Amino acid sequence: MPKIKTIYQCQTCGYVSPKWLGRCPDCGEWNGFIEERKGAVTRQPSRDIHQGKSKPRPLSSITSGYEKRASTGSKELDRVLGGGVVSGSVILIGGDPGIGKSTLLLQTLFGLSKVCGPVLYISGEESPEQIKLRSERLSIDSEDIILISETSLESIMHHANKVVPKALVIDSIQTVYTEEVVSAPGSVSQVRDCASKLMLFAKRSGIPVFIVGHVTKEGAIAGPRVLEHIVDTVLYFEGDRGHAYRILRTVKNRFGSTNEIGVFEMSDAGLKEVENPSRIFLYERHVNVSGSTVVASIEGTRPLMVEIQSLVSQSTFGMPRRTAMGVDFNRVNLLVAVLEKRVGLHLGGMDIFVNIVGGLRISEPAIDLGIITAITSSLRDISVSPYVFMFGEVGLSGEVRAVTQAEARLKEGASIGFKQVLLPSGNAGKIKSNYGLEIMGVQTVEECLEIIFH
To answer: I need a surface site. Which of 100, 230, 319, 424 has the fewest CB within 10 A?
Structure first.
């Protein structure tokens, strides 16, 4: 009998210790160590280790073929995936509880079943009757969607080899376990081994596998970081329960561009695509109100017009408050320092709040000019013209730096109905078409604020 050894493993990073520790010395997480048992099994080398099917080949002799893609029936999801689902790919989807991951996958399987054939939905958290209730609400009824409530990986592989589906969904990876690992489902060892075997199954069979992953309280996908390295695509389903809109964001994609987003609207009939999100996010915008401005952002390959709101008021506390929603908090502090040093605004005793309308989170520096304009507008209580939008990166010396894809931003702004645009002078000199907009190039923050608040 193999000797059973007890270890303690961090459920955040996978660090192994022979005894329990309060804090992980690797990642710094508190109370993350869980007791696990492992069998000391020594593996014998395979006799046919030198008789594999793969042979070394020079790079010049390998022909690259276009990856076959299947449409999911959703243009937004196809955009995020890079044009469709690639055969044999492994796609990991994470998001907060109740955000709509299972709804999205059920609608995706329905679209794939129409094009490809039978698909298999493995649920470790819900019974087939519960999934049936959701499908009735979504008006989904198909004989090609096969449901199984199972958590054993060996049983899942047996059913998958028997059915031979065109797509496989695992909901979720934290509920699946393999009998080869002596630990509880959801542990680091179980998640890592189950994901590795599902990846091998997808590559050998050519069947795309969708994996649902739970997220931690910080918003990252739970389990070892190796889980995101194994899969081909990592998608995060974002959104606020107070808003009807959901953002599907790509953070890793071996078959397409990263940082691509898809916009959906949650309704009683499921997730609906939002074809023109710029109009949706600006629909309820109030004009002639101080502290509001519109910026042109790029998310992946898509230009997006978003509203930035700011509120600046005299602080009643000893230390002024700084709050940023949807933008980097440290970036806002940096821009406030630029306004104080380079422009001469007195913001040291002011509470400053910055918000991206619609629950979006934008990290690109091209929105710097909009943040500075919104803060100045609220401080001076002067509204920005509703017909102007802007974009540009701001440096520490107060200069406005050029950004990429300027013409795509101009085209999107002109289609919404804007008349003027403030942009870096470095971009203004290279514009081939103004799309009917009045182009105003600026070199410094002072020049930008002088044009807007003259």
So the answer is: 319
Residue 47 has pLDDT above 70, yes or no: no
Q: Which two tokens stand for residue 274?
A: 């939002």
CATH code of the region 280-452: 3.30.230.10
What number of other Cβ atoms are within 10 A of residue 199's Cβ? 18
pTM strictly above 0.85? no
The Cα–Cα gap between 401 and 399 comes to 6
Arithmetic mean of pLDDT, 327-351: 94
| Distances in whole angstroms, Cα of residue 15 to Cα of each of 95, 180, 193, 197, 230 | 25, 20, 16, 22, 18
* Spans of all domains in the chain: 4-39, 69-275, 280-452
The one-letter code for the residue type at 13 is C
In 3D space, the residue among 294, 317, 258, 314 whose CA is nearest the CA of residue 385 turns out to be 294
Closest C-alpha among 266, 253, 256, 346 to residue 301: 256
- Give the integer Cα–Cα distance in Å for 274 and 264: 5
Query: Structurally, what CATH architecture does the domain formed by 69-275 represent?
Result: 3-Layer(aba) Sandwich (3.40)
